[in-house]
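Usage

Read records sequentially. Each one opens with the input sequence:
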Amino acid sequence: MSKEGVIVNLQDYSVHDGYGIRTLVFLKGCPLRCPWCQNPEAMRFDYDIKYQSLRCIECFKCEEACSHGAIVKDRERRLDRSKCNHCMLCIEKCPSRAISQVGTLMSVEEVLRPILTYKPFYDGSEKGGVTLSGGEPTAQPEFSLALLKRCREHGIHTAMETCGFCSYDVLKSLVDYLDLLLYDVKHMDDEVHQRFTGGSNKRILDNLARVVTEGVECVVQIPLIGGFNDDEGNVRETARFVSSLGITKLDLLPFNDLPSGKYKTLGMDWEYKYGKRQSQEVLGGYQMIVASYGLEVTIGGLW
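and closes with the structure output:
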């Protein structure tokens, strides 16, 4: 029987998160709880409910379906999530898909089918292919491994984005079928890392030091977050550590405020909604620091 995974989205014709033209497979669930997360819909392992007010035609069929009093008359809010038991009956009755489920259980073959239709585009671009993202792909290891194996069978370039917070055995099993590993290093100070993300960075840094010996191309990513790691000291310490491992590429990811709308549809208040992208001057300064350690630096993704 084919392995199944909970998928948030398949994003076709992407030119980020790896080389060339790619399909991004967003898996649901992450062991960390970074409050700036760019994909809040992929954080929880359970299915989520999304409400998009602009789609609502106010037919209130959702209210008729709900026996828990979770539907309210406020158009902007509509769901009282404290009363919702995730029965999903409101979703079944909503004709405009203003209320929808986040997360779909899919087999490897169901995910692979649309991927294969884009293979000519992957082949026509330099190292184009498939990138597993999330959420966290290592949190659904059996599915991720099965999908990577099938992509390899079809000669498709494979990549994975990871926070590295997993057992090394899981990471190693996936790396065996990867051409590119995009590895987040969020902060070098363990206490700060734990306070903001809910997890220690010790396993993350240890895993990175071990995985670079496996021969996979590895690019370290620093998501730059104001008030957390957006300072010269942390950037310098990260670059020094990465360089010491023999890794040659580091990608600086400027802050992105676009997820604010995603948080709203999930009924979540985003504490970073007033965050701003770093200026070109600041990014240029960080780029010079990283380059001083002999690293090739990109900003905002591989090109």
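Summary fields computed downstream for this record:
- The mean pLDDT is 95.
- The longest helix spans residues 141-153.
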